[in-house]
Known about the structure:
The complex is a heterodimer of chains A (269) and B (352). Chain A is an all-alpha fold and 269 residues long. Chain A is built from eleven helices and no strands.
Amino acid sequence: xxxxxxxxxxxxxxxxxxxxxxxxxxxxxxxxxxxxxxxxxxxxxxxxxxxxxxxxxxxxxxxxxxxxxxxxxxxxxxxxxxxxxxxxxxxxxxxxxxxxxxxxxxxxxxxxxxxxxxxxxxxxxxxxxxxxxxxxxxxxxxxxxxxxxxxxxxxxxxxxxxxxxxxxxxxxxxxxxxxxxxxxxxxxxxxxxxxxxxxxxxxxxxxxxxxxxxxxxxxxxxxxxxxxxxxxxxxxxxxxxxxxxxxxxxxxxxxxxxxxxxxxxxxxx
Amino acid sequence: xxxxxxxxxxxxxxxxxxxxxxxxxxxxxxxxxxxxxxxxxxxxxxxxxxxxxxxxxxxxxxxxxxxxxxxxxxxxxxxxxxxxxxxxxxxxxxxxxxxxxxxxxxxxxxxxxxxxxxxxxxxxxxxxxxxxxxxxxxxxxxxxxxxxxxxxxxxxxxxxxxxxxxxxxxxxxxxxxxxxxxxxxxxxxxxxxxxxxxxxxxxxxxxxxxxxxxxxxxxxxxxxxxxxxxxxxxxxxxxxxxxxxxxxxxxxxxxxxxxxxxxxxxxxxxxxxxxxxxxxxxxxxxxxxxxxxxxxxxxxxxxxxxxxxxxxxxxxxxxxxxxxxxxxxxxxxxxxxxxxxxxxxxxxxxxx
Lengths: 269, 352
């Protein structure tokens, strides 16, 4: 928390989260109310103008953050939990299981993230939980690799051997001795996952495979209003800026945590 | 300073490693074909139902199932699909009734040109920028450069692309086309200006990772013993940077380029859709929207196999460019999975 970058990242992230969570109450109109001219320019009554169907852009903006937010947080958390468990298991288990887990992670890394998600979503439909699940599946191999590598590095150190000599159970050593020591790289990775998740989910909505149309969603708003980019750029710019700012905030947060831990670790000459 | 001389046999030492690596790549390719097949044809969702929509009458669904061979046992379907794919026959597009391979070749070429352009822009830029930032470490330039790179890294790629479209579709900015409507009768070389913005957008997304990698590798190399030794011997700084440290910083960059290409292929789908560039990404998007199953299968298969091939080439290059790995009898350094880590409780108890 001492690192100024971490505080800055946390501030930006919390700001966007506040906009997304409090927005639906602050919105002057309903997200699907048609209240103005199609692609109407900004006026005193509608600061950001109107979109392709005459919705108030500001209202849609304030209501449309929740879906991207909860889906990216859910996907990143799920990927982190499952990936860490599998990675720890792989790093500290017998050869066969380790090889199997590492190899499956390697194979799934051959699928470019977005292609894998597109493939599954196009075949199985676009229920939100399904999208969260597929995005997290796309993220899991990376987490496995990271957790395994960090766990292997920690497992050789003296305090682990000491704990093991004192006769602690394997589970206790795994979760009480090793997990706390690999928490920092995992936390940094969680920040990166959030950044990628926001990018991927909004990209998915932008392509038209995310949240179904009448609902307000930042990625979907970009998709819907792209045709009017020149007439009413705010309908595209405003959600784009919010997506970008949220991704930027989570990323700075991750960078800050990474840097402060690297600083404490590398102080000795 | 000569390496321990081993009498070189007729076959190079890395060949046995390469054969193993090739087998590993083929195995991966086979598993990928299995995954693609399962995701498209064997999951509980019925492809005929997906293609025709939820309201289609039962008759036409049964007809289509028969037409696609979906009424046969699933293992037989897979073998038939794999067999024809191996012969280069990827099926017939349901949307246009043209063999998929005909449709894909041109598209694939366009995407390859796009990616080649990105690599041609990104690699020299990342090298120059990374070295420059490493040499001026912690200066104002370094701090500003890193902040800019973090900004580029954090911004989702398709937002950067939309930003470029917005910028270049403004009045008085019409010297670069914001949408790539290529004339298929002319060669791409005459229409290079359509490539500029897509290449630019993708390069911006790929640049941060590679630049930071080169910068970190250079900083590490500049602090190493051989650089200090060279400095003490009075070797000019310029020579140290370009002849001694940069080649050592290049090898990790190869794996970095391979990784970048993997993320670029995903990003290319979005960028191609935004710029209407007629590559494999727009084809995939169209195929998914048209529910053109053979097309989707073929495109995903081709893309993932390309990634496997890229990884194989990157590993080969790494081995060939690293003397220690090239001459080693058993290459263990980048062999990711053969070597299980002996668990610590077995190791310390001595029963391993």
